[in-house]
Amino acid sequence: MKKIETTTDATLVRQYLDGSEDALSKLINRHQQRIYNFIFSKVFDRDITEDIFQDTFIKVIRTLKRGKYNEEGKFLPWVMRIAHNLVIDHFRKNNRMPKFDNSGDFNIFSVLHDEDLNAEKLMVKDQIESDVRELIKELPEDQKEVLVMRIYKDMSFKEIAERTDVSINTALGRMRYALINLRKVIDKHNIVLTKY
Amino acid sequence: MAKLYLNESPNEKVEKLRPKKETIKFLLNYSKALHVLDGKHMQYENLLN
């Protein structure tokens, strides 16, 4: 029979803070695939994924050792958030420092970027994300909870169902209605959430 | 509906990617080497090899 993993992330974090390096090894082992795949799904490059994965855990280790971690019980969403922020940093850095591809004919337009336009795009994107966050606050509590777990914490529906103590179908239904209600509010108030 | 969402992704290869062993080893060694010292007003990081 398969042995069930019983030590929670919170316990492992505590053990790590108490000096057990083995606890960190278990935490990495437990979540490495999920985090690695999350990063890869955004950057589609093994080397970059490897770098961001490493940077993510360096940040995790430093924060834990500095005693700054205070999200007991939410280890994975916290690590995912760090990974997500590092992915964003990676894209921002790449936009600011365009590299030209040496393969094939040199194309000057691949090197020249209109920095003002990039800054504008970034501002518009930030504004859209901020608007969406405000709209989400208007949703009923149960729908908001599922949407936040799915979109911002990147949890699977199975995990959401377990966390909120409902069936997977209920979690899926709540997500569906959350999106329907968001669209309704957007239509009703003629809110424009497109980039251009 | 649940079945629809829980089906394995057709891109199975992507689902099974893992970091290199060297990366994990580096992180575990980094963790062992990193020591944080509490100063009067701030913390100091020290890497002991």
UniProtKB/TrEMBL annotation, chain A:
Look up the domain of life of the source. Answer: Bacteria
NCBIfam families in the cross-refs: sigma70-ECF (TIGR02937)
Q: Where is the RNA polymerase sigma-70 region domain?
A: 27-96
Q: Does the keyword DNA-binding apply?
A: yes
- What residues does the RNA polymerase sigma factor 70 region 4 type domain cover? 132-170
Q: Which organism is it from?
A: Mesonia mobilis
Q: Where is the signal peptide?
A: none
Tell me which Pfam families the record gives.
Sigma70_r2 (PF04542), Sigma70_r4_2 (PF08281)
Recorded hits in Gene3D superfamilies, A to Z, give:
1.10.1740.10, Winged helix-like DNA-binding domain superfamily/Winged helix DNA-binding domain (1.10.10.10)
Q: What is this protein called?
A: RNA polymerase subunit sigma-24
The record's CDD domains line, in alphabetical order, gives: Sigma70_r4
Metal-binding recorded as keyword:
no
Instruction: Name the PANTHER family on file.
Output: RNA POLYMERASE ECF-TYPE SIGMA FACTO (PTHR43133), RNA POLYMERASE SIGMA FACTOR HI_1459-RELATED (PTHR43133:SF8)
Keywords annotated in UniProt: DNA-binding, Sigma factor, Transcription, Transcription regulation
The record, for InterPro entries, names: RNA_pol_sigma-70-like, RNA_pol_sigma-70_dom, RNA_pol_sigma70_r2, RNA_pol_sigma70_r4_t2, RNA_pol_sigma_r2, RNA_pol_sigma_r3/r4-like, WH-like_DNA-bd_sf
Regarding protein family, the annotation reads: Belongs to the sigma-70 factor family. ECF subfamily.
